[in-house]
Amino acid sequence: MESSLPNESSKVTDWDPEPSVRRPTLSNAHRYTLLLIFCITQFLYTLTNSALFSAIPSLVRKFDFTQSQSVWIISAYQLSFASFLLMSGKVSDIYNPKYTFITGKFILGVISIGLGFVSDGILFLALRALSGIAASLTVPSALALLIGLFPEPRHQAVAIAAFGAWAAIGVVLGLVTGALFVEYVSPNWVFWFVSTVIIPSTLISAILIPPQTKPVVRERGITKFKSLDVIGISILTAAVILFIFAVTSGSIAGWGSAMTLAPLVISFAMISLFFYWEALLPVEGAAVPSSTWFIPNFSVLFGTALLPYFWWANIFTVYVSLWQDIYQWSAMSSAVHMLPIGITAFLFSFANKWTGVISAKWLILLGALMMMAALVLFTFADGPDKYWPLVFPGFIIGSAGAMLIQMSANIAIFRTTPPSMAGTVGAMFNCGLQLGSALGLAAVSSIQASVQEKNGGPSNYEGQSAGFWFMLACICVAALAVLVFYRVDMAPEIVSVAQLPVDVKQDAVASPGGLVPWPAEEVKVELSDAMLEDMLSSLCFSGGAVVENT
């Protein structure tokens, strides 16, 4: 059956009509090879960050950072990564996701080489921020490509779970790799090692990722650029930077000082301005369309995304610093004692089958309870002899809960949104993950420093304990929000046209179980102009859904 599309010639102003380019359906071997490439890329990013946790004490001494300034070793990357993810999601949706993915990987590889040679602390943090921007280009594009490669809900869930599993592998191996480099070579090799893997894999990606199907109509360059919402992203980035600066300054200059209050007030004002600005823009031009927040369960799932990295990043930072600086453990010993976190996260990343049996709401709540139980154990672990009775079980329970939340929320958020928004939704979810880490690190480190200053310095465990109680309170608030606002009784409704191989038509239906496709056979779908435009923007890989407009 030939597809027929409405004649857009009478409507063309900022659009260039182009014929749709069709490709044959990819083989399973090709699809899963590409999945492996995306997973390796995710693995390298998490390996770099987790390796730095082992290197933090060495980098602090090298660049003469204070405890509050040391937060930026991790946060500089995460902040730029999180902020520019929103723009990167739009880039992936509007431009070619293949070239977005490849460009981000290559730039990151080059910057990683430079990071190994830096001797100035400010330049180091600046390059870390730039590497976060480069990495942000790859995650939404990889997720958009994954959604196109695996349109079937069951296979899609497996692919997304695998994507997260490799991140967990990166956490495990990153801790050991970073410790090996710190103890036997140099922290610089953390970055050089990553570049030696990323640059060759970028060339492989350029060859294996197939050309993307062009939409029937394509925006012109200036129209595309306007839709990236540079102004909105700049406002949000500046707001988060000011917020983190205010929080980290509180323990140094005092919470009532102008240095703390001024940026804090301005950051809240700029966040309000960001949401106001987004509401003024049309959907296609907004980084975070206002309508997105009204998609059932989207807002609560985005809030849930703040929790996993919030827990992991703070646990890594607190204990690595405690063990190496106070208990005088070696970097390798600290890394080995951290392994239960990564191993548990990896094992629980394969629990994606539970999402087809148990509602994401209850899995998220279970994960939150596990994280809170672990934090209670940590508050009493005030000595190196408490590792096995308290810290070790806390690592296993809490990491399992964090991975359960990340996996359940990640799968659920894609099931509740249209496939055409895959890049933007993936960006927003990962933005939440990184913001949770960056903001959490700033808040917990500031609380810890303030309490320690009043109670005998870093060797006093009351600072760490106060940070854990703060984390427990935050997770408790988030769990209550999920309990109250997460809906499990949504009626099915058509939200978009999902991607299918050529000569197959599909209607994507949102239901409590997720996106449920019609049988893979020719079906006739009547679409409004808005839904047709949505379908065209989602065409990818094998030509998308063939639709006969009537």
Give the helices and strands, then pairings.
Layout: E1 15-17, H1 28-63, H2 67-94, H3 97-115, H4 121-136, H5 138-149, H6 153-184, H7 188-208, E2 217-219, H8 221-226, H9 230-253, H10 258-280, H11 298-305, H12 307-326, H13 331-348, H14 360-379, H15 387-415, H16 422-454, H17 462-485, E3 493-496, E4 508-511, E5 514-515, H18 529-538
Antiparallel strand pairs: 1-2, 3-4, 4-5
Helix pairs in contact: 1-2, 1-5, 1-6, 1-7, 1-12, 2-3, 2-4, 2-5, 2-9, 2-16, 3-4, 3-5, 3-7, 5-16, 6-13, 6-15, 9-10, 9-16, 11-15, 11-16, 11-17, 12-13, 12-15, 12-16, 12-17, 13-15, 14-15, 14-17, 16-17
List keywords for this structure.
mainly alpha; 5 strands; disordered C terminus; two-stranded antiparallel ribbon; 550 residues
